[in-house]
């Protein structure tokens, strides 16, 4: 991220810098993982909140892989939720 002097960036530019889509950015704003400010109708992402998010992610152990050593990015946001679901009606989880 080559923005040493900038404090905020517009959502579209943030998406390009971070390599993520707009809907995920707005989801992260909504659940508090990213901070943003609104100036008029323009929403700007606070870059320090992104740096803090990265630091928090680094502090968490890496995700486990499946038996093939592969961790698919598709649906990765759902994996923690799916891991807690019972496998059958008789599963005590």
CATH class of the domain at 1-61: Mainly Alpha
Q: What is the subunit organization of this protein? A: single chain
Stated plainly, the CATH topology of the domain at 1-61 is called Arc Repressor Mutant, subunit A
Helical segment count: 4
Tell me the helix content: 25-40%
Task: Give the amount of beta strand, in percent.
Answer: 5-15%
Largest sheet: 3 strands, antiparallel
Order of helices and strands: EHHEEHH
With strands numbered from the N-terminus, the spatial order across the biggest sheet is: 1-3-2
Description of the structure:
This protein is of the alpha+beta class. The protein has a domain at 1-61: Arc Repressor Mutant, subunit A, CATH 1.10.10. The protein is built from 4 helices and 3 strands. It is elongated and about 50 Å long. The protein starts with 7 loop residues before the first strand and ends in a 10-residue tail after the last helix. The model has no long low-confidence stretch (mean pLDDT 81).
Gist?
The chain is of the alpha+beta class. It has helices at residues 11-18, 22-30, 47-59, 79-83, and strands at 8-10, 36-39, 42-46. The chain has a three-stranded antiparallel beta sheet with strand order 1-3-2.
Relevant terms:
93 residues; 38% helix; Arc Repressor Mutant, subunit A; 3-stranded antiparallel β-sheet; alpha+beta
């Amino acid at each position: 991220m080559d923005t040493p002097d900038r404090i905020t960036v517009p959502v579209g530019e943030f998406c390009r810098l971070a390599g993520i889509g707009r809907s995920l950015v707005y989801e992260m704003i909504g659940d508090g993982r990213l901070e943003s400010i609104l100036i008029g109708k323009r929403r700007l992402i606070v870059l320090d909140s992104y740096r803090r998010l990265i630091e928090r992610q680094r502090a968490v152990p890496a995700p486990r892989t499946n038996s093939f050593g592969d961790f698919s990015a598709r649906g990765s946001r759902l994996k923690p939720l799916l891991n807690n679901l019972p496998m059958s009606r008789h599963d005590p989880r």
